[in-house]
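Annex B.
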Amino acid sequence: MHGTHGRFLRVDLTERSVAAEAIPDTVFAGLIGGIGLASWLLVRHCPPGADPLGPENPLVFASSPFVGTGVTTASKIAVAAKSPQTGVIGDSLSSSYLAIALKRTGFDALVVTGRAATPTVLVVDDGRVSYRPANDLLGLAPERVAETLRAELGGGFRVAAIGVAGERGVRYAAIANDGRLAGRTGSGAVMGSKGLKAIAIRGSRLPAVADPKGLAAAARDLAGRSRGPATAKYREVGTAANLAFFDRIGVLPTRNFQSGHFAQAEAIGGETLLLEHGTDKHGCAACTVGCEHHYRTRDGNGGPETDARLEYETLFALGSLCGVGDPNDVLRAAARCDDLGMDAISAGATIAWAMECRERGVDLGSPMDEVPAFGDGPAVLRALDAIGARTGIGDLLAEGSRRAAEIVGQGSDAWAMHVKGLELPGYDPRKLQTLALGLAVGTRGACHNRSSAYEVDLSDRLDPDAEATMRATAAAAAEDQAAILDSLTLCKFLRHAFADLPAEAAALHSLVTGSPTTADDLLRSGERITNLKKGFNIAQGWTRTDDTLPPRVLSATPEAPTDLSRPWLDQMIAAYYGVRGWAADGTIPLAHSARIGLSGLVE
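Tungsten-containing aldehyde:ferredoxin oxidoreductase: predicted structure tokens.
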């Protein structure tokens, strides 16, 4: 196939061995690349029962055929490992020039196994591997690490680095690159467990595409549409615009999901932030949308002004979820998460769990003044520092809400807002039925990026009383569409710029690879990738009881009425399994695996 090198680089840090291994064309044909390729490599290299923080857990970085081709938004790196937060598949995407640098090395992916004996930087220069001691980099923020290494190693290097959170094994630590984070599921903790502070990559070899002229014309057309009305909200205000809208319709998670409305929503809304705190905006690597907005504190407190990159998920998690209504406090907390290298959603949600524990008088094993209260912005900042350092109350909160609740007990699991250990994103599912199903069955836990089923709910395409099969079909379709985009490594904000996403994406894929790809081919690949990830989870110990929702969203309160219930959820999950062709217990029959072409791709 054009657009790929057809091989990956495997590095064993324990043995300091390096091997180049082939990737069959059938893998790219069946799983596309990106998240599909990363999942295939994870299945191949991660043994059942592997300790997520042990040397046997592989850390995978993968690109796609679209990376480096000029197709807008396609420069995303896919990261996969067994998650230390959930124990199942942990997959993330990050928009950055790192993806292009990896593709230029002559490899489509990098698989890192083992554990370095001392803190290390892995250097991959045009496919040649070397190691640099990292003792002098410990304790530094990812951005400082990248600056240091680029100055030392020379031009063209792109750097993936962890912060203190990754060094200390915070279970939701992230990997940072180009100011962006592969944030959810704890890949930074996996990297830290391997003794890796950073990976520096440079290359000079991109594979040829099948039809350069045809691709250039198609890419120009798509870039033009990417600057049109379909992406205007992201370009003009950014995703922070969602906060005020979600508050109006009652689905803005507030005070640890105790309510869907936040009294101070206007104060931290996207429009207010833009007018009173906005500084500039940026686009990700190879992006023509430009959704990334930057902000600055304006209150003069807490020392020098703080600059922060802020998106809706960070805004809700460190704002309304914790009851914090001062935008300056939220901006400082967002910047601190980036400096420490940790996922803001899980950090904010775990702190919100602790806040409710305090409110209910639950003993967390630390002095009360260490436990933040709802609305106390400075206390959130102190809690983040404690989490990164794993000191005091931070050592408990670094485990995430599920493990923290298991340790503390006292009924606190009732308000630990997670699925499979991954904390809920910024959509209250009590009024979003299709999303609720998508969150419950999601392979990596509660994730809106792996199931954009909320679009079905917000568009009113399904009646609240729609038949279970209709809702299950919509949830599965949303999941498979996300798998396609994540494997092509196209930004999800681009999806509405397509008139017919599967057909147009297939045409682009044909121009890049030379393979006569159809819309049906991509749709089948999306289904195959979802099944591949589910198969990995089953091998790692997943059971039917893991597909569920937090008790809180299944019970109505005066502040937060719900359209959901346990019987309703069980009915929906059964229908979803039926739509998927899975058994009643959620496992994948061998005949189904063969029917969708998965059994030929995995051993």
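The mean pLDDT is 95. The longest helix spans residues 468-488. Further annotation is deferred to the next reporting cycle.
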